[in-house]
Amino acid sequence: MSLKSIGLILCALVLSGGGWLAGEKYKHEMRDLIFIKELVLHLKREISFSRTELPDCFLSFQNKNYSDVINCLSKGNYEEATKKLAFKNEFSQILISFWSSLGRDTACAEESRINKFLDFLEHEEEKMSSSLTGKIKSARVLGICLGAALLLLFI
Amino acid sequence: MNMVSCIKEMLPSPLYSFIDGEIPPEELRMRRGCRVLLKKDGISVATALICTDELMDQTLLGLTNRSFYSHEDTIREGYIPLPGGLRAGVCGRAVCEKGRILQVKDISSLILRIPRRIPHIETPLLEKMRETRFQCGTLLYSPPGVGKTTVLRELACTLSGKFQKNIALIDCRGELSAGLKECAGLSVFLHYPKSTAISIALRTMAPDMIILDEVGAEETEELLLCGNGGVPVVASVHGNSLAELKKRKSTEALLRSGMFGIFAGLTRSGQKTNFVFEEF
After folding, report:
1. What was the pLDDT predicted at A155?
2. Which of A99, A112, A149, B239 could anchor a disulfide with B141, C-beta 3.0 to 4.6 Å?
3. Which chain B residues are closer than 8 Å to A103 by Cβ?
4. For testing the chain A interface, which of B60, B67, B97 should be mutated: the one with the most A CBs within 10 Å?
5. Burial (CB count <10 Å: 0-12, 13-18, 19+), residue A19
6. Same domain assignment for residues B75 and B154
7. Are residues B234 and B163 in the same domain?
8. Per-residue pLDDT tens for B225-274?
């Protein structure tokens, strides 16, 4: 087999792989969103009912997959924590500004701020889940098709 | 970790340099839009640092461990309790209902008082108490910031250590017992309401003496019970002179009850604290 055909096959594989990974990224983003939603719900409970201090609120949330994120949040390194998640820049900024706004007011005010943010998260989750299957499929299919087309064109 | 390190960890970086140094200040005072004031040796000095909104917010965040809501109750009472028996006094805009404070918002002023141990500051008072074989109640008075709490703290330490007395120390704000971990003879009633602590101490701890800070009209009944029950009380109260305390309704009943035999006024010149003993 000539060097040219090996290169073509590699190109096709890379394109297909890229499509596959793009699909995985959407899945990852959804997982992170669910984690954030659960964490915010936990914060709401801790703040409203037991007035636990914010670092302890974060640390009492059990999730082994996100322990490094939780650690950063408990230390107040909100930017670093958000960097570890798979969100787009715009959403990351919203998240950082939400974390930074916490702990500056009375419990009632904190609760209403958290409620508003939870509404926003639910809306985002709905939006993401409705388009998720389509996005994953189209990313993967597009990648595979491009790879196959490239291969067919040059063989 | 000592108290100064504790404070440094909580404060934003522009305030670090004020706390650094061999002798930390007695007091750090901040008001939004004004210069930060430091008190050393009883003298307030304005620093070059302006307390901006951001600096005040950062300081509050640090002092409340990023959890203003978890300190709401004490902020309503005018302070934020800090580790190691420290506290920061705060005031702002109160939201009231039927004369009761529901919330304090928009904190505008903050004062951080750093308690210090000054060994032997209590010696003149101790001598006076020894003359009465520790059987007499003692009332300590001075304007705020002269050193009543410091004297009471050292007195509690010496009486429970050197004189092996069982001392019930009633510390409702966590300030009086700051740094007294090594005194085994002390029973510390931390954050108890004063009147409840007095009655529990009397009933359960069999103290030789009860020490408490800043007595008011609310504790009169329990204090009179102590005086009549043979347990001397060492208490402090804000005031310039005995004559002034006699005129005040909140202290009049206590003074007339005869439970105090020693009346010690505190004055301060520079670093030195002086006692003025008066007769009732």
Report:
1. 64
2. B239
3. 61, 64, 66-69
4. B67
5. buried
6. no
7. yes
8. 777 778 899 999 998 888 888 888 878 888 888 888 999 999 887 777 88
Residue among A76, A107, A109 whose CB faces B66 most closely: A76
Residues B25 and B89 in one domain: yes
Residue B263 and residue B149 in one domain: yes
Smallest Cβ–Cβ distance between A104 and the set B57, B65, B72 belongs to B57
How much is the pLDDT for A38?
Answer: 94
Interface of A with B in 41-60 (CB under 8 A): 47, 51-55
Local confidence band at B115 (pLDDT 50, 70, 90 cut-offs): confident
The verdict on A107 touching B (C-beta cutoff 8 Å) is yes
Say if B52 is an interface residue toward chain A (CB within 8 Å): no
Residue B6 CA, chain-centre distance (Å), reads 19
pLDDT digits (tens, 9 = 90+) for A27-83: 888 899 999 999 999 999 999 998 999 999 999 998 888 999 999 999 999 999 999
- Interchain proximity A103–B64, CB inside 8 Å: yes
d(CA B140, CA B125): 9
**Type of residue found at A73:** L
Domain contains B118 = no
Across all residues in chain A, what is the average pLDDT?
Answer: 85
pLDDT in tens, B188-218: 998 888 889 988 998 898 899 999 998 877 7
**Per-position b or e across B46-71, b if 16+ CB within 10 A of its CB:** eeebebeeebbebbbbbbbbbbbbbb
Across the interface, of A54, A106, A109, the residue whose CB is closest to B66 is: A54
Whole-model pTM: value is 0.71
Domain borders along chain A are 3-154
Reference B27, options B13, B46, B54, B14; nearest CA is B46
Q: What is the ipTM of this complex?
A: 0.74
Nearest CB to A106; choose among B60, B65, B68:
B68
Residue/partner pairs of B242-251 with CB below 8 Å, 24 or more apart:
B242/B141, B242/B278, B242/B280, B245/B139, B245/B141, B249/B217, B250/B216, B250/B217, B250/B220, B251/B215, B251/B217
Domain extent, residue B10, equals 3-113
